[in-house]
Amino acid sequence: MRHLLLALPFALLPLAAQAHEHSHDHDHDHAHDSLGAHEHGVASLNVALDGKLLELQLESPAMNLVGFEHAAKSDADKAKVAAAKKELEQPLQLFALASGDCKATEVELESPLFGDADHDHDHDHDHHPHEGEHSDIQAHYRFECANANELKQLDLGELFKRFPATEKIQVQLIGPSGQQGVELTPAQPRLSF
Q: Residue ranges of region Disordered (predicted)?
């Protein structure tokens, strides 16, 4: 199933490119702006539903989830990182999937803020100083849904509520009715499968 998520960005590239072109009516200060640009307030979510398996892959600037992107040094910052990690480790609380009787079978979180960066991480950033200013958080979730055919929508309302600095989420979905790309916001947090 993981191969399905890896293919998702390429399959939906035309949709993402249209959304990216549309977003140029606001100010950008990144000269290296690209399809996967780091933008505070904006996250991306890839969703793949194949039979009874549902995979979600969330990528967000750390600023949206913890309020900063630097390494946590103070006790207050460490507490914010720990709280965000704890929230992200409970996907059934963040994504309303009750109608599908889904159980999380895999949860993977990755971010330099969680202390899982490799030893060469800082060295790599010496060659790209601008990139060193940004930290992202990636979360990968796999669910087995006993009643996958009952899944009619994905509701991100709770995710927006728990992480209020997240203003919009660019969603790319592959499901039983094909592929689609949509932008979700706190005012419109639901996506139909």
A: 114-134
Distance, CA of 12 to CA of 25 (rounded, Å) = 22
Cα torsion for 97, 99, 101, 107, to the nearest 10°?
-10
Q: What is the pLDDT of residues 28-55, one digit of tens each?
A: 333 333 335 668 999 999 999 999 999 9
Work out the pLDDT band at 133, boundaries 50, 70, 90. Answer: low
Domain boundaries along the sequence of the chain: 2-19+39-192
Identify the pLDDT of residue 84: 97
CA 123 – CA 15 distance, rounded (Å):
35
HEC profile of the chain: CHHHHHHHHHHCHHHHHHHHHHHHHCCCCCCCCCCCCCCCCEEEEEEEEECCEEEEEEEEEHHHHHCCCCCCCCHHHHHHHHHHHHHHCCHHHHCECHHHCEEEEEEEEECHHHCCCCCCHHHHHHHCCCHHHCCEEEEEEEEEECCHHHCCEEECHHHHHHCCCCCEEEEEEEECCEEEEEEECCCCCEEEC
Strands 136-145 and 102-110: antiparallel
Max CA-CA distance within the chain? Answer: 49
Rounded to two decimals, the pTM is 0.75
